[in-house]
Amino acid sequence: GAIVTAVVSIYGNENKIKKNLGHVLKQIKVLKLNLLDFNSCLKMLKNQEVIFNFAALDGSRAYKTAHSAEIFKSNTQIVLNVLEAARVEKVEKKH
Questions:
Q1: Residue range 7-24: average pLDDT?
Q2: Are the C-beta atoms of 49 and 2 separated by less than 8 Å?
Q3: How far apart are CA 23 and CA 91, in angstroms?
Q4: Predicted structure pTM score
């Protein structure tokens, strides 16, 4: 009975989205957003009650080796943006 919003990267491949979420696409809302952008995080969390953050910049082993600092910085920024947007949007903290 929950109203579910899934956020995918603005660079997300439509075929991957359909492959991974196709079985529930009619029951959920999908937003394509850049979570490195704080305003996008605010948009994502508007009227949300629960957040599961699984967002992360990822890649092949070679990409991770060559871009480890960039990946760390991006993933940290995503977490900070989501947490701050949750605070601003007054998403209740659950224990």
A1: 82
A2: no
A3: 28
A4: 0.82
Under a CB-based contact definition with an 8 Å cutoff, are residues 5 and 48 in contact? yes
End-to-end CA distance of the chain: 22
What tens digit of pLDDT does each residue of 52-85 get? 988 888 889 999 999 999 999 999 999 999 999 9
Which amino acid, one-letter code, is at 18?
A: K
CA separation, residue 53 to residues 5, 7, 8, 50 (Å): 12, 10, 11, 10
Q: Which helix (H) or strand (E) holds 61?
A: helix 61-66
Calculate helix-pair angle for 38-45, 68-88, nearest 10 degrees: 50
Please state, in angstroms and rounded to a whole number, the distance separating the CA atoms of residues 40 and 53: 14
Lowest mean pLDDT among 22-26, 42-46, 85-89: 22-26
